[in-house]
Design a protein that fits this description.
Number of domains: 4
Bound molecules: adenosine-5'-triphosphate, magnesium ion
CATH topology of the largest domain: Rossmann fold
Largest sheet: 5 strands, parallel
Number of helices: 19
Structural class: alpha/beta
Length: 463
């Protein structure tokens, strides 16, 4: 079958051209080569390749220029996979914007090349079929950001602009949208060789957070039996992620502000000043501006953190990525849970597209995992997602936000926000049978935050 497929390789590096050509021919493809964008254009006109492997940096005419020409000349851009040098995310993103199908970072191993080519060509042959097939290739699953919606491309652009500086970044968005993934992508694109250190401000007890961050010396406080290096030091020139920054105690916010301003700090109980050399990425799913108004977050810290901000969109705002995400997450389930799903029906995809996804990509991931593990054969159908039908999380979320249904305020007492929060959390917990995962999703908070609130408000199942 392969020999009907024509591949054009455009690269000015003759040794790459030759080795790819030889390899792809041995896989049964018909291969043409060109040494720059101009030759490439002529080859496209004459040979009508099914797929182009296109280098970006070439003399005479670059890969991006060739893409632009092809776009201008032909109605439909041939399937194009860009080959970029390491760190050239910006050019890759521009190529994706022009309509390239995918990009590979050089050096590209032959196995990876073959897998990507095969997967790309399959998308053409399967495009009109009812089911969408999942690649069963042995290529290891890679936990990477997926998405090509304009909103996601904007994020990639911001990330690539961070190269070469240590600016603080604030990543915000609803629960489960991929904020942590964005933080990792920032790290991998700016300081991949340095440590990646994360701390969840909601999960660390408030009396320990200072020593977690700054470190402490032996005997600094009861229980400090040995000295400990803080995360600010351990991160060296890497990325320090402060997840759920809204939960950082006010006192610690003041100290953090000082670290950001002065790039220096003292471990608890120490007089030896240390230097902070890393980049801070703060993550939140709360509206910090509102917290500032109620005095729960320092405005000056907010300004310091918000030097560059990245909004990670809710899934319902980039549904054009749904299919890609579904395929990626099925592969992930196959890899992590050793399931062997081969395809998903169009009907199931349509249904997933009509769902509201209040828990965003995390909820989609859980749904796919659930469906894959319980599937009787290797196909996911509309029925595999029966647990998402009305009455599921999405619907519950809607009912829950209609406040009068759980407390009628018109007759009742007036509540403090604190009391209101307590009662509302309790209400949602009861309504969802104390399923904490779902409750956190509906409330738009993480599990650690929910656990913290449950403890704080003394909520118990039997109340
Ligand atoms: N764009 C994406 N492509 C692929 N997987 C994604 C993407 N975004 C999120 N995921 C997956 O969804 C799950 C949730 O993502 P992540 O933990 O980054 O979300 P979050 O915004 O930090 O959530 P929370 O606010 O609950 O902490 C993870 O398993 C992650 O791998
Ligand atoms: Mg997170």
């Amino acid at each position: 079958m392969n020999n009907e497929r024509k591949i054009l390789i455009v690269d000015d590096d003759t040794s790459i051209l030759r080795s790819y050509q030889k390899f792809l021919e041995s896989e049964g493809y018909r291969v043409f080569v060109a040494r720059d964008g101009r030759e490439g254009f002529i080859a496209v006109e004459h040979e009508h390749p099914d797929l182009i492997l296109l280098d970006i940096n070439m003399p005479v005419k670059t890969g991006l220029e060739l893409l632009e020409d092809l776009k201008r000349t032909f109605d439909k851009l041939p399937l194009t996979i860009m080959m970029t040098a390491y760190g050239d995310l910006d050019a890759a993103v521009r190529a994706m914007n022009l309509g390239a199908y995918d990009f590979l970072t050089k050096p590209v191993g032959l196995e990876k090349l073959c897998f990507t080519v095969r997967r790309a060509l399959e998308t053409i042959s399967l495009a009109e079929k009812a089911a969408y097939f999942i690649d069963q290739d042995e290529t290891p699953y890679r936990d990477t950001i997926v998405g090509r919606d304009a909103l996601m491309v904007d994020i990639y652009k911001t990330i690539s602009s961070l190269n070469g500086n240590r600016a603080t970044v604030l990543v915000y968005g609803e629960s489960g949208t991929g904020k942590e993934m964005v933080a990792r992508a920032i790290h991998e694109n700016t300081s991949p060789k340095e440590p990646f250190v994360a701390i969840n401000c909601a999960a660390v007890p408030s009396n320990l957070i200072e020593s977690e961050l700054m470190g402490h010396v032996k005997g600094a406080f009861t229980g400090a039996v040995a000295s400990q290096t803080g995360k600010l030091e351990a991160v060296r020139g890497g990325t320090l992620v402060l997840d759920e920054i809204s939960e950082m105690p006010l006192e610690m916010q003041t100290k953090l502000l000082r670290v950001i301003q002065e790039k220096k700090f003292y471990p608890v109980g120490s007089t030896e000043q240390k230097q902070f050399n890393g980049r801070i990425v703060a993550i939140t799913n709360k509206n910090l501006t509102e917290l500032i108004e109620t005095g729960r977050f320092r405005q000056d810290l907010f300004y310091r953190l918000n030097v560059i901000s990245i909004k990670v969109p809710p899934l319902r705002d980039h549904l054009s990525d749904l299919k890609m995400l579904v395929v990626h997450l099925i592969k992930k389930a196959n890899f992590v849970e050793k399931t062997s799903i081969e395809s998903i029906t169009q009907e199931a995809l349509d249904f997933l597209g009509s769902y509201s996804w209040p828990g965003n990509i995390r909820e989609l991931e859980n749904a796919i995992l659930n469906a894959s593990v319980n599937a009787k054969d290797k196909v996911l159908t509309r029925d595999s997602f029966a647990f998402l039908v009305p009455g599921g999380v999405a619907n519950t979320a809607q009912t829950c936000t209609e406040a009068p249904k759980f407390e009628d305020f018109s007759h009742g007492e007036l509540l403090t926000l604190h009391e209101f929060e307590k009662r509302y959390i309790e209400h949602v917990l009861k309504k969802l049978n104390w399923h904490k995962g779902r409750t956190a999703e509906v409330l738009g908070i993480t599990r650690p935050t929910l656990d913290k609130r449950i403890e704080e408000y003394g909520l118990t199942k039997n109340d």
